[in-house]
Amino acid sequence: MHPADFVFPAAGVKLPPGGLVLQTSDAAQRELESLLEFYLASGLDCFLEEDAVDRFALSAELARAQAEARTSAPARPAAHSAPIQSGGPAQQSRPQAPASPTREPSAANAPISGGAFADAVVPDTEAIHAARDAARTAQTLDELKSCLQAFNGCNLRLTAKNLVFADGNPNARVMIIGEAPGRDEDLQGKPFVGRSGQLLDKMLGAVGLDRSSVYIANVVPWRPPGNRTPTPQETEICRPFIARQIELAAPDVLVFLGAASAKTLLDVQDGIRRMRGRWMTYDCNGRKIPSLATYHPAYLLRSPIEKRLSWRDFLSLRQKLSEDANS
């Protein structure tokens, strides 16, 4: 059901026993539509259980149970004490303490088997090194995609439905890089196919480009749960793969959508307002690639007044491509 099909009661209006009021003000209806859109953007697109499940507690319980299983040893029978042969009367009359019975492992302490987080890993430096080693082995983009599909060092793969590797033309002169996929991208396995992607297509079309003339990817190829921001550890683990992807695609120009992707790959700390519209350089193993940062389409959907600045950025991109073609 579309959010527009719902009607929300105005503030202060009591609900009848039957549920929501069916007719109310337009402002209240827009309020509900915004709330439902927020839930969808946060990944809450269906109800799986009546009660909330604390996944953090489950993963902590899993780690604790696995640690106990590794360190526990078979219980040894209690040794029988030898009779006391000497000592004072107090020692001879002291009763022997009964041997403690062997405690059977309870269901609560039993190792947890299976489950969505059974293959979870610790996102430490070892995972980062494993990502670097795996990315180096790829000699083509297809091999790199296979490496990512087989890579188990990033826990985002456990909650994502699909790997979102790339879309467009890998031989294009322009490579566009975002931060991470969203709900629609996760469902289809392609980057920028939701509302942000539709706006990006219009922005590209305005300067004579389309998906056949650009190559699109993300720094993080798996959707974070609820469209949350990827953690620094998750970004750092995925960074070797996007760096190798840039190297194999060998574009003439890089376009970063949003500050996150630009900061990750350009090692800068400026905000997007200071970075956008300014040509920078990405060092790809000694090859200097001109790079341009601009606003993310998702931000432009929330702040349409900033589209004028993104339009200037894309005009600058078109001019750069034209200059390089004529040189």
Automatic annotation (TrEMBL):
It comes from the Bacteria. Residues 165-315 form the Uracil-DNA glycosylase-like domain. Keywords: 4Fe-4S, DNA damage, DNA repair, Hydrolase, Iron, Iron-sulfur, Metal-binding. The keyword Chaperone does not apply. Its EC number is 3.2.2.27. The keyword Transit peptide does not apply. Coiled coil: none annotated. It is an enzyme of class 3 (hydrolase). Pfam families: UDG. SMART domains: UDG (SM00986), UreE_C (SM00987). It catalyses: Hydrolyzes single-stranded DNA or mismatched double-stranded DNA and polynucleotides, releasing free uracil. Residues 69-114 are annotated as: Disordered. Residues 69-83 have a biased composition (Low complexity). Belongs to the uracil-DNA glycosylase (UDG) superfamily. Type 4 (UDGa) family. This is Type-4 uracil-DNA glycosylase. It comes from Roseibium polysiphoniae. The lineage of its organism: Bacteria, Pseudomonadati, Pseudomonadota, Alphaproteobacteria, Hyphomicrobiales.
